Amino acid sequence: MSKEFIIGSKVRVVALPPYVKTAEPMPMLRPPDVIHLGEEGTVIDRRPGGYWGIRFTKGAFLLDSQYIDSTDNPPESQSESNSTQEL
């Protein structure tokens, strides 16, 4: 199941794909080193096939949802500690 993001929300790269595709009318494949692990970008649109258009400092690229995560989500350790405090 692919993750859902809100247009305009901030996301972080959690894994690098073997290549990245530019989010232009005529897309081009680029090497993965145009973005960096941990780099943050803004979601600009949703594309077919589970791809998201994301604006980074070096341009806009299409990434599958498995390579990005929302920066709005609390880390796992925080959410686990909150649930144990409620018990």
TrEMBL record:
Protein name: DUF3148 domain-containing protein
Source organism phylogeny: Bacteria, Bacillati, Cyanobacteriota, Cyanophyceae, Nostocales
Region of interest called Disordered, as start-end residue ranges on this chain: 67-87
Pfam families: CRR42-like (PF11347)
